[in-house]
Specification:
Length: 264
Amino acid sequence: MQSAPTTDPAAAAPAAAPPILDVVDYHKAYGDFVAVDGLSFAVGAGQVVGLLGPNGAGKTTTMRAIAGIIPPTRGRVAVDGFDVTTDPVEAKRRLAYVPDDPKLFETLTVWEHLRFVAAAYDVPDLVDAGEELLARFELTGKRDTLAQELSRGMRQKVAICCAYLHRPRLLLLDEPLTGLDPRGIRTMKQSLAERAAAGSAVVVSSHLLSLVEDLCTHLLIVNRGRRLFYGRTDEVRAAFAGAGTDGSAEDASLEEVFFRATET
Ligand code: ATP
C-alpha cells in the first residue's frame, strides 16, 4: 500500500547548510585576566562578518583562536565541521589567516612564498593561480624579489596572495587594508566580495568603518571580550536607529552603531 504524501512543509524543506565557522562559548583567559568571555557566533557560506570593537576588545585574540594559534581556555571552535583543537590539520587546511602584521620568510622570494603555500596545501594549479594573483595585486614585477626587499604594502599583498592561493573555505583578515594604496584597497575589496560570492565565509576585523560598510553582510560587535551584538548589518543599523530630523526612526550609520554599542 502506498503511504499518503506528506503535507508537512517542514518535512520537505531542505536542511539548512551547516555553518563554515562555528564558535561556541569561546573563552580565553590569560591568568586572571579574561580577554574573551563566552563568545558564540556562526558564519555561513557567502557571509562577510565585520568584527568590530575598541582597542583591546578581544578581536585579535578571537581571530587567533579561530586560526588555531592560541588554544581556547573553554569552548569550541570548528571550521567546516572540524574542531580547531582536536582536528587542527583538517581545520587549518580550510582556513587562511592574515594577521595585521603578517610575517614573511625574509630570505624567500615572492614566488617562493606561493610555492611553499602550494606545497603545504596541495594546490594543483600553482603556476596559473599564482601568476593571476600576482598580476591582480601588481606584484608580477616583484616575483623574484626577496621578502626583506619589499615595501610594507607589498608585504601585505604577498600575505593576501598566499591566503587566497589555496582557496580556503574560511578567510580571517585582521586589518587587511593596512599599508595598501588606493588601487590595492579596491582590489582587496573586490576580491573579498568575489571570494564570498564563490562560497567562502569571511571574518574581517577593522577599525575602518568604510571598509565594513562596503563589504560586510553581518556585524559582530565586541567589547571587553563580550559579544554586544551579532546580526545582519541592516538589522544592527535598525537596532541602533535614532530619531531623524523629522522625528521618525532613522537607521544608524556604522559610526553611530559603534559608539552607541560600545558606550552602553
Ligand atoms: P586592537 O583593536 O587594539 O587590535 P583587539 O580587540 O584585537 O585590540 P586583543 O589583541 O585581542 O584586542 O587583546 C584583548 C585583551 O587581551 C587586551 O586587554 C590585551 O592586553 C590582552 N592580551 C592579549 N594577548 C595577551 C597575552 N599574551 N597575555 C596577556 N594579555 C593579553
